[in-house]
């Protein structure tokens, strides 16, 4: 059974805690790295994040401080080679243009992977920030603004008064005066045009941004956001259930408090309980034991479910078994 994981590049791409939770709920392990070394969340979200890290659901990879992306990615790939299970498949999410290099390095190292490249978050909220490509495509008025900007960029003599601008919009876009006036208002509101009473000035830097915006290319190339990328993830199939014996009535009475545990988890508890003092104390040793016991199941998901329901706990040093594990 192929084990699936997610590798998330946090540079220019800081997801919300709810998006991380969405990934953690569906994948056995999430690997994170960030060349800037920064990570900011609220105290409540950090507490939940810390529990994911301590349980092994989230693994933070070491990232060297270097201007050479190839070296940074090589270090990341080296860690993945050591951490990934055989035949694992990795979904990469990154907002970096250089992420294709990471994908190539992973593939050359025989790591099956798929790259989902998304749009980078703006570093700061610019006062001249453009609407997104999807927003422009969804609003006809913004499409008219884009069309006029494309024409404006080719003009040798640009309008210098409000009235000249209105006539220019009217002629180029073939609009009636009232519609042309609306477009003029949008040009001013979007900071493409600066008005001084009846005079205007074209902001060259803002116009240049609109001219560079290729709506067709932007729509075809990248998911709009981190949320879109999460929806595209190739999620693992449901954990296969092992053949489990039907429990006798006495056993049902014994496990009456385990209503939320599925049959596979019950079988895990029974087999671990049978080990008595030989229960593994190391989390990786426990994982290996479960792989031997349940070779057809997603063991990482089994561990996650047992931790979520309080039957085992990883305190960063050893596995602690709750009192329910000792019922027999």
Question: Secondary structure elements and their pairing?
Answer:
Elements: E1 4-9, H1 17-26, E2 29-33, H2 43-55, E3 58-60, H3 69-83, E4 89-94, H4 99-108, E5 112-117, H5 133-138, H6 140-154, H7 162-173, H8 177-189, E6 193-196, E7 199-202, H9 204-212, H10 215-221, H11 226-232, H12 249-254, H13 263-274, H14 283-293, H15 299-308, E8 312-314, E9 319-321
Parallel strand pairs: 1-2, 1-4, 2-3, 4-5
Antiparallel strand pairs: 6-7, 8-9
Helix pairs in contact: 3-4, 6-9, 7-8
Protein name: PIN-like domain-containing protein
Organism: Acinetobacter tianfuensis
Characterise this structure:
By secondary structure, this protein is an alpha/beta fold. The protein folds into three domains: 4-119 and 222-232, 3-Layer(aba) Sandwich (Rossmann fold), CATH 3.40.50; 133-219, Arc Repressor Mutant, subunit A (Orthogonal Bundle); 249-326, Arc Repressor Mutant, subunit A (Orthogonal Bundle), CATH 1.10.10.10. 48% of the residues lie in helices and 12% in strands. It contains 15 helices and nine strands. Helix 7 packs across helix 8. The longest helix is centred in the N-terminal third of the chain and has 15 residues, at 69-83. It starts with a strand and ends in a 7-residue tail after the last strand. 24% of the residues are buried.
